[in-house]
Write a structure and sequence with these properties.
By secondary structure, this protein is of the alpha+beta class. It is built from 3 helices and 6 strands, in the order ββααββαββ. The chain has helices at about 25-40, 50-65, 110-115, and strands at about 1-10, 15-25, 70-80, 80-90, 120-125, 130-135. It has a 6-stranded antiparallel β-sheet, covered by helices on one side. A hairpin with a 2-residue loop joins strand 3 and strand 4 (about 80-90). Helix 1 (about 25-40) runs antiparallel to helix 2 and helix 2 (about 50-65) runs antiparallel to helix 3.
């Protein structure tokens, strides 16, 4: 897994961003989860590590299942209220979460669980494929916390 970490300053506001490129195969999911967890702890978002791990696993599993090359980009962005996690790949097909998944099927529950774990999630086409993202809000960063 090739990794890059960057700190960008834009308009006086500090934007912390972590980026890496990887091949989304199950053998690499644990390493991706550990990298994301370490970065979130470094930024002080310890309370988001477990939810982020679940979201990263699901996002990478979707790349593994639906993108023939399995290549993708993983990006974390620290936000004032939490963190945004996104995975980009070369497929233009946007994911659709089932309203109520078939709980007896082998597959098809991941996006439903992701939609229940993340505070917000979405997807959008990019010039090279698509990006699927989640936002996890940190209760410690909420107004009045």
């Amino acid at each position: 897994m090739r990794q890059a970490s960057s700190l960008d300053v834009t308009g006086g506001a500090e934007l912390r961003t972590y980026r890496t490129r990887l091949v989304a195969v199950p053998q690499r999911f644990a390493l991706a989860r550990r990298s994301v967890g370490a970065q979130l702890r470094l930024w002080g978002y310890d309370g988001l590590v477990d939810s982020a791990a679940m979201c990263v696993t699901e996002l990478l599993a979707n790349v593994h299942r639906h993108v023939s090359s399995h290549e993708c980009g993983l990006m974390l962005q620290a936000l004032p209220e939490g963190v945004r996690i996104s995975v980009s790949d070369r497929s233009p097909a946007l994911p659709v979460a089932e309203e109520e998944p078939d709980w007896h099927a082998e597959r098809g529950r991941g996006l439903f669980l992701l939609s229940r774990t993340a505070d917000r999630w979405g997807s959008e086409r990019t010039p090279t494929g698509k990006e699927v993202w989640v936002v996890l809000l940190d209760p410690e960063a909420a107004p009045g916390a």
